[in-house]
Amino acid sequence: MDGRTLRSEMEKQETKRDKKTKSTSYPERQLAKMLKSRPLKIPETNHHLIIGDSRRMHEIADESVHLIVTSPPYPMIELWDDLFSKMGCTDFQTMHVYLAQVWSECYRILMDGGIACINIGDALRKIDDTFQLYPNHVKVIEHCEALGFITLPYILWKKPTTRANAFLGSGFIPPNAYVTQDCEFILLFRKGQTRPFPPKDLIRYASHYTIKERNTWFSQIWQLPGARQKNRHVSRRVAAFPEEVAYRLIRMFSIIGDTVVDPFLGTGTTMKVAKETHRNSIGYEIDEKLVPVIETRLSDTDSLKPSRRRKVVEGLQISHQADTH
Ligand SMILES: C[S@@+](CC[C@H](N)C(=O)[O-])C[C@H]1O[C@@H](n2cnc3c(N)ncnc32)[C@H](O)[C@@H]1O
Questions:
Q1: Ligand 1 touching residue 286 (CB < 6 A)
Q2: What crossing angle do the helices spanning 306-315 and 291-299 adopt, rounded to 10°?
Q3: Looking at the 3D structure of the chain, how many domains does it have?
Q4: What is the pTM of this model?
Q5: Ligand 1 centroid vs 69 CA: distance in angstroms?
Q6: What is the tens place of the pLDDT at every residue in 87-108?
Q7: In this structure, is residue 46 part of a structural domain?
Q8: Segment 28-85, tens digit of pLDDT
Q9: DSSP state of 178
């Protein structure tokens, strides 16, 4: 067999393999088999928005939640100065002590094997003539590990840098320029050991992802643009994350019918995606002015016909946190 024949034989084999893997993966084949003997019933889901402070999530029982997907206010980023100062936090350390109270509640409500996904960016800031990095991701890891969380490999979310002034420092001459900060972190933590499931759990198999999704989602760098939402002004004001971030995390780390909590709900991205992916959700938001935005986003659930949308908002339970302190 000469080189050319061998190459074309190998190409043929590869195409065959590609076709095979593209059409069916192991869970897809298993699911098809299982569905022959058992019908799949997708459970109805509930969505609860609590206007209140997630440093005390006493509406949620211990170990009752499967997944946390969230993005807190970022310490040392000007956008959040007012919120932190209202809470009495004026420096890097105290801002992280504030967030750590929420991480502690997340640890309490997560079940054994539950996962917390925390999106955070580092801050660059000049204080007293010193320009430096405030590594928020390091502080969150330190606090979460102190609470007992197990740190898992994290994701770097790389945003496109199209701004003309993206490069900071002294132009084209060394050595005083700064590396561009174009990545945020999606930190991943687990409480305890991995979640056990009975063998051939139908709902777990029905929640599988495809080979292509697995290859993209489980790689360490995600190249995604920022949030593009209808209410751009509000999205920017609360630094909303794109639906794709919540979508991937929910599909990667929970199954249909699970409960997902976002303790910093903002415009409601996590809740909207949880609804669309058949997970229950609970969201905490301290800023009551965001309620109409959250309602609108939920009524805009892509998978629903317009005639059913109003019902979704009616189905959303909204309550104010009981004042127990
Ligand atoms: C970065 S934003 C979240 C954006 C959200 N991921 C989205 O897609 O819209 C953080 C949110 O947390 C809220 N927040 C801050 N401290 C809080 C607390 N202790 N309890 C509840 N919400 C809080 C802020 O009002 C803000 O809306």
A1: yes
A2: 140
A3: 1
A4: 0.89
A5: 12
A6: 999 999 999 999 999 999 999 9
A7: yes
A8: 898 999 999 888 889 999 999 999 999 999 999 999 999 999 999 999 999 999 999 9
A9: B
